[in-house]
What we know:
Elements: H1 3-11, E1 40-44, E2 54-57, E3 67-68, E4 77-80, E5 86-89, E6 100-103, E7 109-111, E8 120-123
Antiparallel strand pairs: 1-2, 1-4, 3-8, 4-7, 5-6, 5-8
Amino acid sequence: xxxxxxxxxxxxxxxxxxxxxxxxxxxxxxxxxxxxxxxxxxxxxxxxxxxxxxxxxxxxxxxxxxxxxxxxxxxxxxxxxxxxxxxxxxxxxxxxxxxxxxxxxxxxxxxxxxxxxxxxxxxxxx
Length: 126
């Protein structure tokens, strides 16, 4: 994909500016960011933020501990607005023998398509 094409796709994502209450419409076929409140980690069962998300807050989630998604489920897209880095794991036990990836927490991170099915995560202190 050419640089201009990548830029066009990124600009096509629905952006809502905090405090403005206004949004820019996304062109057909563009992915819109999933709704995820500040201080939360949100995980969706399908790509492109589809399906009912699981949400986790710092106040109720142990930092530096492995948190498995409900048994028999997985996530394929996520938004990290927890303000802390999060590592997602293919393994439900947070084992590093499967795939894993760490996403920054500052400013928020939206991942419309995880590179593997996420079955667990860890929020890190910093």
